[in-house]
Amino acid sequence: MKSLLSQPDQQVSPRKVSFEKLALKYLSCAKTSKISGFTLIEMLVVVIMIGALAAIAAPGWLTFVNRQRVTAAQDRVIGALQEAQREAKRQKRSYSVSFRNQNRVPQYAVAPAATPDISKGWQNLLSSDNIKPGQLLVYTNLQSENKKVASAATINPTGVITFDYRGVLPRDAETGLQIAVAIPRRDDLTQPVSGTKRCVTIKTILGTIQAEKDNYNSSTEKGCYPGS
């Protein structure tokens, strides 16, 4: 019997060595991997691009907001006139719609005819969420109650339109009475920016209401005062 000491040393399996090398290589790569990110120059380029796009889009967005604002105000004027007509017929008494600019905020009131201003219950033409002082102008072509000015270029900031107990204009009233809204000019808050005008005109003695826009055209008798 051969001595156990004379047996050759046990050899390591090549497959085991290969597995250990692969594991060490994987761990080495995991430790030395780098996390990629944006450089300062790349971030500056993105910020500049966003600023340029915002500058291009801002005028268009402002125009859209102004258009929505005057359209909403025009709808409210129509609603106020129709409310006065309904109340006049329902209560069988004359009813008035009054308009004014109070601290550069357009307001309206629907109340029985000859009601004092302090008792009319004035309301903002648009809610405070949609309008701030100086952002919307309301004006009329009225010289006095149910009477319009002689010149289309003369604009009063206030006006009163009264319907009789039947919900129509009185016999002595004039037709073509108009309430207009617009975005005011920055250099003169009493004058509208061209192209932003929206108005409501009472066309007939029966109180027919018509919504219009843009400058007044004397040949078609359509549009908003003033004509220039």
If you had to describe this structure to a student in words, what would you say it looks like?
The protein has helices at about 15-30, 40-90; strands spanning about 95-100, 105-110, 125, 135-140, 140-145, 145-150, 160-165, 175-180, 200, 210-215. It has about 230 residues and is an alpha+beta fold. It has one domain (about 45-215): minor pseudopilin epsh domain (minor pseudopilin epsh fold), CATH 3.55.40.10. A 4-stranded antiparallel β-sheet has the order 3-2-1-7, covered by helices on one side. The radius of gyration is 38 Å and the shape is elongated.
Task: Describe the secondary-structure layout.
Elements: H1 14-32, H2 40-91, E1 95-102, E2 105-112, E3 123-124, E4 137-140, E5 142-144, E6 147-148, E7 159-163, E8 177-182, E9 198-202, E10 209-213
Antiparallel strand pairs: 1-2, 1-7, 2-3, 4-8, 5-6, 8-9, 9-10
Which structural traits does this protein have?
four-stranded antiparallel sheet, disordered N terminus, 31% helix, Pilin-like, 228 residues, minor pseudopilin epsh fold, single chain, alpha+beta, membrane
